[in-house]
Amino acid sequence: MQYPNEWLQGLSLGEKVASELRLKIIEGSIKIGTVLSENQIASEYEISRSPVREAFKTLSNEGLIRLERMGAIVQGLTQKDVEEMQDVRILIETFVMQRICQLPNEELINKLNQMVDKMELAAKHQDYVEFSYLDLHFHLEIILAANHTRILHLWNNLRNVILTFLLVATERRFTEETHEVSSLIEKHRSIVQALISKDSDYMEKMNRTHFEDTRKTVGNVLSKTISVDN
Q1: Angle 60-66-69 from CA coordinates, rounded to 5°
Q2: How many angstroms separate the CA atoms of 115 and 137, rounded?
Q3: Domains of the chain
Q4: How far apart are CA 181 and CA 200, in angstroms?
Q5: Which are the contacts of 27, defined by CB distance < 8 A and separation ≥ 6?
Q6: Is the pLDDT of residue 137 over 90?
Q7: Could you tell me the maximum CA-CA distance found in the chain, to the nearest angstrom?
Q8: What is the pLDDT of residues 165-213, one digit of tens each?
Q9: Under a CB-based contact definition with an 8 Å cutoff, are residues 32 and 75 in contact?
Q10: Which of 148, 208, 116, 26 is closest to 156 using CA atoms?
Q11: 178: which of 44, 80, 153, 170 is 20 to 30 A away, CA to CA?
């Protein structure tokens, strides 16, 4: 699997290297325990060591590698990591949806409906790249609507890892778990309906249902590549 070129636009060289290495680690083409060196990656990408160092720092902060004197040791994602990221997403979006329940949200509803329509179109054309991008940005639009700087900062710390495992999971859904795609679209429509209702309890229920289902699906799809260690 290649990291989508359109997602690399506007990134620094270090961010591009981090994005491509992140995907290789999460999809399993770079195995857990592999030792990566700055010289090796710089040679592979035909670049200097400086952007590689930047990429390693980013991946280390995300917990995907551990920096040692011998090089960068690939840690990858454990099942526990995936579950904890879903826990954080539930906490963030439950808070956000309760917050925007009190605000005018017609513009948000229109945006979300358009995004779900585009997800349907992407599914029709088997475009897992566009589908996963829309999936992430559906949830990002909800978070942005809350106008909460610290929550957005917390989300942005997870964003690149979430987007990458969504890309891997969505590609496998499209090829191995096709029945999950239409179900996922309907779950997003249910979230929109919950926002329209402005019923905070109903919002929380729909949000938790969506993320609990997603937790199981993503865990199953990524089980072939992630570590089972805690």
Answers
A1: 120
A2: 8
A3: 5-74 (1.10.10.10), 79-222 (1.20.120.530)
A4: 27
A5: 1, 168, 225
A6: yes
A7: 56
A8: 889 889 988 888 777 899 889 999 999 998 998 887 888 888 788 777 7
A9: yes
A10: 148
A11: 80
